[in-house]
């Protein structure tokens, strides 16, 4: 019996737990790290854009962003649409980014040890396809 979904979930939980063990002493959690990575690339985004990218429900994202704002990691600025404020990283978050990235990269290297580049590329394609399939099934509902 193949329970791919269950195994993916177990692996994801292990990945998140291990990442949290490495970055929580640095004042960050994996849920926040996803926001940091997205904003580091995009510079500014709305809460909705971040939620959609991370596939996180709005109330959960609100709690994460509120905590990050209190910790001085993000700030809200006027957006293109006056009703939606944009979120961006603070100078503090930019200063700590390289430290967090180093820990994340080291953890990923450990997780990927012994896996060929070709297998990792296939793995990435499989995950993209699975996400696309799941997104498509939600749109049909």
List keywords for this structure.
DNA binding, Arc Repressor Mutant, subunit A, globular, 3-stranded antiparallel beta sheet, mainly alpha, 141 residues, 3 strands
Report a brief summary of the structure.
This protein has 141 residues and is mainly alpha-helical. It contains six helices and three strands; from the N terminus they run ααβααββαα.
Regarding quaternary structure, what we see is: single chain
User: Describe the biggest sheet?
Assistant: 3 strands, antiparallel
Strand content: 5-15%
Strand order of the largest sheet: 1-3-2
CATH superfamily: Winged helix-like DNA-binding domain superfamily/Winged helix DNA-binding domain
Overall domain count: 1
* The CATH class: Mainly Alpha
Summing up helix and strand content along with how strands pair, one would put the structural category as: mainly alpha
User: What is the overall pLDDT average?
Assistant: 93
Task: State the end-to-end CA separation.
Answer: 28 Å
Structure description:
It holds the Pfam family MarR_2. This is DNA-binding MarR family transcriptional regulator. It is a single chain. 71% of the residues lie in helices and 9% in strands. The chain is built from six helices and three strands, in the order H-H-E-H-H-E-E-H-H. It has a three-stranded antiparallel sheet with strand order 1-3-2. The radius of gyration is 17 Å and the shape is globular. The model has no long low-confidence stretch (mean pLDDT 93).
